[in-house]
User: Which sequence fits this backbone?
């Protein structure tokens, strides 16, 4: 009987656990460049999203992606370090399954590093360098952290923001199926206890 109860709970918990740990990648491809000065700025089109609300890869003009780092802290040998803070915002335009309006809003929680060479520039905010982008999914109010890496080759800029995905709001049908399943499982356990 305990085995039946354990299997039932496991069957319910596994899909929820897998869904809770899903991540979302936002990709920016741009022919423009970074604005580098006392801060680093980017205002670009959001070109691809993978895993938003559990969905697959969606491409096209999906919205905007913009950020501004904190102020320049140091510069040495082609490596510039910018302070935490600044702003980080992703806005959807209502296409590709993204809502219309601001989706994610946050800041850089640690120093952002810009490495420049003659061939390319790389902007990084990741755990290895003690940085993350910390912000809020505005559709759920959930606060999460993620990494951001951007590479600028001559004429092409590619940026990827990876963050734990927002949990979609369950549909009423899904909730009723879950409730019915739990009710059935409870009745099965009750029947086994009486026997």
Assistant:
């Amino acid at each position: 009987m305990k085995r039946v109860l354990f299997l039932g709970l496991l069957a319910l918990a596994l899909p929820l656990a897998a869904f809770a740990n899903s991540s979302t990648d936002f990709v920016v491809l741009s022919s423009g460049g970074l604005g580098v000065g006392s801060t680093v700025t980017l205002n670009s089109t959001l070109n691809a999203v993978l895993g938003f609300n559990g969905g697959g890869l969606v491409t096209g003009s999906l919205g905007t992606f913009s950020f501004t780092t904190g102020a320049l802290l140091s510069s040495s040998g082609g490596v510039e370090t910018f302070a935490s803070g600044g702003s980080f915002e992703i806005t959807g335009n209502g296409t590709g399954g993204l809502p219309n309006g601001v989706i994610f809003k946050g800041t850089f929680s640690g120093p952002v590093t810009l490495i420049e060479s003659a061939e390319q520039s790389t902007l990084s905010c990741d755990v290895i360098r003690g940085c993350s982008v910390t912000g809020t999914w505005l559709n759920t109010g959930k606060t999460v952290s993620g990494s951001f890496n951007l590479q600028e080759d001559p004429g092409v800029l590619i940026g990827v923001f990876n963050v734990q995905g927002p949990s979609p709001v369950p549909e009423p049908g899904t909730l009723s199926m879950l409730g019915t399943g739990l009710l059935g499982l409870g009745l099965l356990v009750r029947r086994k206890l009486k026997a």
